[in-house]
C-alpha cells in the first residue's frame, strides 16, 4: 500500500470515527432504543469500511489472515441485517404499511443467515476463493440497498419527509461498496481518483445516516413532549400537571415529614390569561404560560417543585425548616410578585406584537406535611388565589 493510499484511507477512517462519536453522544443524551440501534449500525459500518480498506493489516502486520478474511466477508451481510432492522424502526410505519415491517424483518433474517453461511465458508476456504466470497457478500449488500430503497420509497409516499434523504444515501453507499469491495479483492489495483471518491462516499453516507438518526430522535422527542406521553407534563411549559403534579406534591410532603421540614404551597392564579385570545389569536396563551413558568422558576430556583394545577393556576412547593424565620418565605413570595407582575410582549397572528400585563392572585398555604392531604392543600391554595387580587398573607 502506497503512502498516498494510506493517507486516503486514514482520512476516511478519521471521518468515520468522528461520525461514530457524534452518534454515540446523541444516543447517550436521548437514551432511546432507536438511537442506540442507530449508533450500533453506524459503528458497525465504520469498522467494516476500515477492514475492507486494508488499513488493519498495514498498521498491524501480525493480523491473522483467515480471521481478517472472515470479517471482511461476514460483516457485510451482518451490517445489512442491522440496517434493515434499523430502517424498519426508523421509519415508524408499522401500522400504516405492514409491508415495510415484513421486508425489514424477512430481509434482516435472510442477511443474518447469509452472514453465518459466508463466515463458515470463508473459514474453511482457500485464499484463492476470497474473491468470489467477497463478490457474494457485495451482492447481498446491494440487495439490501434495493430493499432499503423500497421501504424508504413507500414511507415517502405516506408523507415521511426524512425518508426522501435515503435516496442520496443509497447512491453514496453503492459507490462506497463498489470501491471498498474492489480494494479488498484486489488491493492496489484501483486508481487514486476512485479511491478518493470511495472515501468521500463512505464519509458522506455515514454523515447522512447519522444526521437522519439524530433528526428522527429529535422529532420523536418533540412529539413525546407535545403529547406529554408517559410524563404527565404540560406540552407548552413542560411543567408537571394533573396526577403527576399531585404525586410530586405528595412526595414533597413525605420527604419534608421525614426531614423535619415544613411545606409551603404557593399558588399563583393568572386571571386574564385568555384576554388576548380575540385580539392576538388563539394559542398566544401558550407563550404567556411559558413566560410565567420561567419567571416562577427564576424566582424560586430549581430545587422547588413547580407545576401547573390547571391552565391558569401555577403551583410551587417550598420546603423550609420548622424553626426558620417566616421572613424567608415572605422573601420568596415578594420576589415572585415582583417578577410575575412585569408586562411582557407576545406575538400574535400575522406577526403582530401585543403587550400583556398579568392580573394575578397569589396565596401561600403553610401545611404540616405529616397531617395534610396534598389534593386538599392544592384546592385550598387555588380557592384563596382565585379570590385574591392583592398580595396575600401567610395562612395556616
What does this 3D model show about the protein?
- The protein has helices at 3-30, 33-53, 55-59, 65-91, 98-124, 130-157, 166-185, 192-227, 242-258, 277-280, 284-300, 326-340, 374-387, and strands at residues 261-270, 305-310, 313-321, 344-347, 353-356, 360-367, 394-395.
- With 396 residues, it is of the alpha+beta class.
- The chain has two domains: 3-227, Rhopdopsin 7-helix transmembrane proteins; 242-395, Reverse transcriptase/Diguanylate cyclase domain (Alpha-Beta Plaits).
- A five-stranded mixed β-sheet has the order 2-3-1-6-7, sandwiched between helices. Strands 4-5 form a two-stranded antiparallel sheet.
- Strand 4 and strand 5 form a beta hairpin.
Brief summary of the model shown:
By secondary structure, this protein is of the alpha+beta class.
Pick out its properties.
two-stranded antiparallel sheet, 396 residues, Alpha-Beta Plaits, alpha+beta, five-stranded mixed beta sheet
Amino acid at each position: 500500500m502506497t503512502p498516498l493510499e494510506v493517507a486516503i484511507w486514514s482520512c476516511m477512517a478519521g471521518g468515520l470515527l468522528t461520525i461514530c462519536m457524534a452518534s454515540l453522544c446523541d444516543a447517550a443524551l436521548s437514551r432511546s432504543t432507536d438511537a442506540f440501534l442507530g449508533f450500533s449500525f453506524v459503528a458497525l459500518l465504520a469498522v467494516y469500511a476500515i477492514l475492507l480498506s486494508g488499513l488493519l493489516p498495514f498498521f498491524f502486520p501480525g493480523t491473522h489472515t483467515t480471521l481478517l478474511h472472515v470479517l471482511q466477508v461476514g460483516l457485510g451481510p451482518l451490517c445489512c441485517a442491522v440496517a434493515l432492522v434499523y430502517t424498519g424502526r426508523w421509519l415508524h410505519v408499522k401500522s400504516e404499511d405492514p409491508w415495510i415491517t415484513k421486508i425489514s424483518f424477512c430481509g434482516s433474517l435472510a442477511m443474518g443467515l447469509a452472514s453465518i453461511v459466508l463466515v463458515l465458508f470463508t473459514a474453511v476456504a482457500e485464499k484463492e476463493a476470497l474473491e468470489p466470497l467477497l463478490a457474494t457478500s457485495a451482492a447481498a449488500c446491494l440487495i439490501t440497498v434495493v430493499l432499503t430503497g423500497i421501504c424508504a420509497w413507500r414511507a415517502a409516499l405516506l408523507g415521511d419527509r426524512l425518508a426522501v434523504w435515503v435516496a442520496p444515501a443509497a447512491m453514496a453507499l453503492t459507490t462506497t461498496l463498489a470501491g471498498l469491495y474492489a480494494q479488498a479483492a484486489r488491493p492496489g489495483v484501483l486508481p487514486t481518483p476512485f479511491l478518493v471518491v470511495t472515501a468521500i462516499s463512505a464519509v458522506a453516507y455515514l454523515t447522512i445516516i447519522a444526521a437522519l438518526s439524530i433528526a428522527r430522535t429529535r422529532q420523536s422527542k418533540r412529539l413525546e413532549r407535545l403529547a406529554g406521553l408517559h410524563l404527565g407534563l404540560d406540552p407548552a411549559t413542560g411543567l408537571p400537571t394533573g396526577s403527576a403534579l399531585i404525586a410530586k406534591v405528595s412526595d414533597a410532603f413525605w420527604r419534608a415529614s421525614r426531614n423535619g421540614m415544613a411545606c409551603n404551597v404557593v399558588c399563583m392564579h393568572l386571571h386574564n390569561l385568555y384576554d388576548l385570545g380575540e385580539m392576538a389569536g388563539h394559542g398566544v396563551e401558550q407563550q404567556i404560560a411559558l413566560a410565567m413558568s420561567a419567571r416562577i422558576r427564576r424566582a424560586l430556583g430549581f430545587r422547588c417543585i413547580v407545576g401547573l394545577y390547571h391552565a391558569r393556576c401555577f403551583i410551587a412547593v417550598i420546603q423550609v425548616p420548622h424553626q426558620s424565620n417566616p421572613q424567608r418565605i415572605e422573601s420568596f413570595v415578594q420576589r415572585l410578585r415582583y417578577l410575575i407582575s412585569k408586562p411582557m410582549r407576545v406575538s400574535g397572528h400575522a406577526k403582530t406584537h401585543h403587550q400583556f400585563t398579568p392580573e394575578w392572585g397569589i396565596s401561600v398555604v403553610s401545611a404540616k406535611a405529616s397531617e395534610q392531604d396534598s389534593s386538599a392543600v392544592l384546592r385550598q391554595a387555588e380557592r384563596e388565589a382565585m379570590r385574591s387580587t392583592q398580595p396575600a398573607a401567610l395562612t395556616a
